[in-house]
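re: ur question from earlier - yeah i can do the single chain one, its not a big deal. heres the input i used so u can compare w yours
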Amino acid sequence: MKVAIFDYGAGNIFSLKNSLEKIGAQVDVITGLDKSREYSGLLLPGVGNFDPAIRSIRDYSSTDFKDYVTQDMPVLGICLGMEMFFEKSEEGKEQGLDVMDGEVVLLPDTMKIPHMGWNNLEIKQQSNFLDGVKDDSWVYFVHSYRIKPKNAGLHCCRD
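and the output i got, formated as tokens:
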């Protein structure tokens, strides 16, 4: 498998690249979407700030990201990478990529922010990205925001 990681100027690119290469993927780091059709998947990494990340994607890609995502190639957003798919975020003032309807909001005040620690995954819908990941798996989280989709069928988290 040959995948690309989009470098928007921040993020956990090095650890993500190493993890993917450990499982046998050929990984390139790219800064524009112009030649990305040669890959079998695209990843937007996490870590960073919403506004600079959005500006970087817009400034360094002649291709409109929303049109790009509607193609057949799988695109995985991790943390901030996933947040950018939505219309807006409470973290910034820039408009999101508007791929999915909804917004990114601060975690409820009933949680310590940032939320850091181990939690169980509750997998609501299987996908190729989750092959080999079991429901109730322990994963480590570090985040302060969550998605609030307009589509009730798009599962994310508990309120």
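DSSP finds four helices and nine strands in the chain. not sure if urs matches, ping me
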